[in-house]
Amino acid sequence: MGQPTGQPTAAPADMPMGAGLMQDEPVPSQGVLPATESEGGQLLPFTLDGEVKVFQLSTQPVLWNINADTQVTAWTFDGTVPGPLFRVTEGDRVRVVFSNNLPEPTSVHWHGLPVPTDMDGVAQPELSQSPVMPGETFTYEFEARPAGTFMYHSHYDTDTQINIGLFGGFIIEPRDWQDRPDQDVTLILNEWRVIDGVTYPAMPDMGEPNYFTVNGKTYPHIPSINARLGERIRIRFIGAGQFEHPMHLHGMPFQIVATDGYPVPEAARLTKDTIPVHPGERFDIEFVADNPGQWAIHCHIVHHATNNDVEPGGLLFVVNVEA
User: Fold this and answer.
1) How far apart are CA 320 and CA 293, in angstroms?
2) In 3-state terms, what secondary structure has residue 47?
3) Do residues 177 and 194 make contact, with C-beta atoms less than 8 angstroms apart?
4) Best label site of 125, 178, 185, 225, fewest CB within 10 Å?
């Protein structure tokens, strides 16, 4: 278990094997096909091998629409941005059969999860495993614990690969969850740099990116949260990119109920309307939809609520509360 299998395939001539993309190099798009799915973060199905939940996960480049007018060249898990959502129960035995269909080596890191060291996915430097080469398969297996909000992402050439789409959510539910919210929504935040229709890795030393997405979409294509009056809504924010996003809810305050996957004791919970989500952080917030109307929720770095400097756009969507 855990040893790479399969035969490596050659990288294209414009991408030396293992070299990674530099900040001023575009993401290669030649021969890349449009995505066959339009929504990321969809629930990943599994099969059972005895009591082990077995998931299939693969990487591939796709052309991904972040809005009706803007397409990016993305490296993805299972062809979507973000990758599919793992949702399991605390204590489950999880096996992930991972196949690399990219032109570069890669790996999968289970961000925040205390997995065995040889399952942690750090392939650059080779602390956990050797990189999974193009055409190879690697099997990860671990116990899903503790309950909370986590994510997974590449841990090879991370300055590039995460920035162009190799990330997804990993939710572990409590085994005996007595206090389920009425709605439970996972929102993954990241950034893009698109110049004259060409995608570049969005890196901090290049200045602010020009597109910002929630679950792979910009406003106005981010789905609304539709709530009935009195419903309790949990939002799980995941910072997958390299920039801070102070997310602000209009119309209602919220409580911080968990940070980085770990619950906040009720007596210690803060009531706020804005929370800064830093790279790698996860915050679970909950609010009661007690104020009817259409309410904005957006990043309060206002440039992050634009599409290529045009407002409104970016990290902005709507919470509809029906009376």
Assistant:
1) 6
2) strand
3) no
4) 178
